[in-house]
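User: Can you predict the 3D structure for this chain?
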Amino acid sequence: MRNRRVYISCRRQRSGTIVLRLHQVFLPVAPHIREAVESFILGDQTDTARNVLRRHFVDQFCSVGLAPAPQDRLRTNGHTHDLEQIRTELNQRYFEGRSTARITWGRPGPDRRRYRISLGSYDFTGRTITVHPLLEQPHVPRYVVEQTIHHEMLHEMLGLTWSGTRRVLHPPAFRQLERLYHDFERAQAWLDAHIDALLDKTSDRAS
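Assistant: Here is the predicted structure, written as structure tokens:
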């Protein structure tokens, strides 16, 4: 189901059969998470089941400092960088046109003090790349924006990786592939030199 507010529903039919419905956010998750949901609904109130569900929802909804754009309000054109144009060029150059993710400029989260700042994120459920608006500035080089988008496109292409019950965002294979972006080192060097200024800019907006 795709309900915006209900993520798990359960009802017992007259026959005694229990019908369990899960939100589509559970589609890409590891089987043990769905099993934990089923066990929890059927009466497993142990800390193990609770912790698995808690970790999953924290990963899904509270992991990055970007508030996802509503589905009908994607914004790709900026004053400086055109995200869709960049995504299309990267798609042809590095992914043989296989990427189908949407892309948008994001907006700062409601409380930046609570979450880390992320310059980009990929929503596995909505298949949407969100780029932090801090990069929509004339002094931010295009190759920095490109490297950020390339990184998120890799998440789309590689999907989720699990180590037991833990989701691994950047396994060794991911780190190797992200270096294939032709200006990777240059982009990283620029961010190392300017990240503090970008974060200061965030603080200015919050005040």
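The radius of gyration is 19 Å. Residues 65 and 111 are 8 Å apart (CA to CA).
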